[in-house]
Amino acid sequence: MSAHDTSFRCMAWSHNQNYLLTSDGGGNIKYWSPSIAPVQSIDSHDGQAIHALSFSPADTKFVSCGDDATVRIWDWAGRREERVLEGHGWDVKCVQWHPRSSVICSGSKDNLVKLWDPRQGGCLSTLYGHKNTVTKVAWNDNGNWLLTASRDQLIKLYDIRAMKELCSLKGHHKEVTSIAWHPIYETVFASGGMDGTLIYWNVGPKGSEEPAVKIPFAHDMAIWDMKWHPAGHLLATGSNDRQTKFFARNRPGMKNGLDDDGLEVADGGAYDNEIIQAEMELGNHVGIVIGRRGATIIAMQRQTKTKMHVDQIRRVLQIEGTARQIETVKKRVGALLDRVSSDNEDRGQGGGFGGF
Question: Rounded to two decimals, what is the model's pTM?
C-alpha cells in the first residue's frame, strides 16, 4: 500500500491509541485508523516537508511543523487548520505539545527554541541556548523539564518554571539526532547521535552531567528516532542503517554486553594491554571508511581508542591498539563494507528492470 507519494517524515499516535497521524516531504498529512485504513488526507505547509506532529493532551487538537518556518495548530474532529504560529526564521525541525498544559515547544534551523500559546497564537518565550540547528525537543512527564538537542552536539535541560537552564550535557561527538525520556524514572533519558552512538543519562540529584552508559556503534549510521517500552525495560531505536534494534539492561549479576570502555567483552576474558598493529584490506571502499572530510575514521578512532590510518595506495586500513580494540574495529568496518556491497548489488539487480 502506498501511504504517501513522497518520503515519510514523521508519525504520531493519539494518546488514546485510536488514531495515527503521518506526514511526508510534500506537506501532506494523513489520518489513519487502528486497522491502518486511511481516514483523511490534508495538504498543508505550502507543499514543504513536515518534520514533526504532536497531539494535545486531550487529543482534540494536534500541531505540525515544517520547512515553511511555521508551526500550525489543527482541530482534530473538524480536520481543519485553526492557527498558524509564525516567528521562526528558518525551517522548523521539531515540535511537541506539553503533556498537560496549553503550551507548545518548537525547535528550528535558526538555532532557537520557542514556547507558544496555542490558544492566543503568541510566542511565550524564546530560548537561545544552542549554536546550531535544534533537532529535537522533549517534555518530561513532570511538566517542568524541557530537553532540547542540537547539531552543536549538546543536549540542554531547562526548567520552564523559571526559564532556567539546569545543565548542558556533553557526550556526543556528532550532532544529536534523537532523545527520549524514560517512562518511569523522570531523571533518566536516552539520546542517539549522527554517528550511531547511543547514550543513557541520569540528570537527577543522584545523577551526573556525564553519560551513565555510552554505547558507540549501537548503529552504523544516524539514529533518527527512539522509543521506550511503556514499562521502561526496553528501548527501540531506528537508524539510517535501515535497522531497528532493541536494547535492554542486563539482569543483576550478568556481565554480558559492554565493559567500562564501551567495547564488547570477548567470551574468553580481557585481552592483554599490549599495543599491537594490524591491517585490513579495503579494496575499492577506501573512501567509505575515510568518510566525508575524514569524519568516519576520526569518529571510529575516538570511540574505539585506537590509531588508524588508510594507506590509499595499498588500499588497506592500518590499525594500532590492543587485540580487543583491533577486533572491534575489524568487526565494525566489516559490517560497513558488507552493507555497502549489499546496496551495490541491489542497485545492480534493479538496473535490469528499468531501475525499479
Answer: 0.73
Phi-psi domain of 113 (left: phi exceeds 0; alpha: psi -120 through 50; beta: other)? beta
**CA 347 centroid distance within chain:** 27
Grid coordinates representing 139 are 517534555
CA distance 134 to 152: 8
Tell me the H-state helices in the chain.
286-290, 295-304, 323-351
Q: Which residues have C-beta within 8 Å of that of residue 251, sequence separation ≥ 6?
A: none
Q: What is the pLDDT of residues 99-110, one digit of tens each?
A: 999 999 999 999
Cα–Cα distance between 73 and 15 in angstroms, integer?
Answer: 17
Specify the pairing of strand 104-108 against strand 92-97: antiparallel
Collapsing DSSP states into helix, strand and coil, what is residue 301?
A: helix
Strand order in the sheet with 38-43: 8-13, 20-24, 28-32, 38-43
| Per-residue model confidence as pLDDT tens digits over 192-210 | 999 899 999 999 777 788 9
C-alpha cell at 165: 537552564
Size of the chain, expressed as the number of residues it contains: 356
